[in-house]
Amino acid sequence: METEKPLTPAAERILAVAGKLFYDNGIHAVGVDTIAAEAGVTKKTLYDRFGSKAELVALYLSRRDERWREWVRGYADPRSTPQRRLLRVFDALADWMRVENTRGCAFVNAHAELPGADHPALQPIAASKEWLLDYLRQLAADAGARNPARLAEALLILIEGATVVASLDVVPTAVAAAKRVAKLLIEEAAGG
């Protein structure tokens, strides 16, 4: 996948259309004919730029991951306490779910659909989850957690679980509930 050079306006349009269709309908339910027609391009243009539907899916998820990372970092006010920055990840998630994640986690949804261990979209899926775990670990270390890795793992599990149950409308306040549990875990991890 050629990501070094900027995408043409037509390729950006294809990517935007494909991303919306993949998220709203599922990857397997959306064919390249539909993507090309909705984007107002030919299938040849789509294949010339992306090579395959699999590569298009991978780039869609990579771009979504970039937006997610930027979103989360935007909530980490450097003037607040390290503990507060950890909790702000839950605020970022709550707002993200209202704006970008109305049908659950795009990465988990895509992972459930992708065949085999060699699909190119598996890399951005793993990278997104690994980034969040690393980010939480760093914030936990900054907050003085005795075991930052363990706290980060627990917080990631809370985030992922809250995302699932909130998106299914099982517990509409799941992110707020997860944040309350996270606060207790953070206090405990810091020895308070």
TrEMBL record:
Domain (HTH tetR-type): residue spans on this chain: 8-68
DNA-binding region in chain numbering: 31-50
Pfam families: TetR_C_13, TetR_N
Gene3D superfamilies hit by this protein: Tetracycline Repressor, domain 2 (1.10.357.10)
Swiss-Prot/TrEMBL keywords: DNA-binding, Transcription, Transcription regulation
Name of the protein: TetR family transcriptional regulator
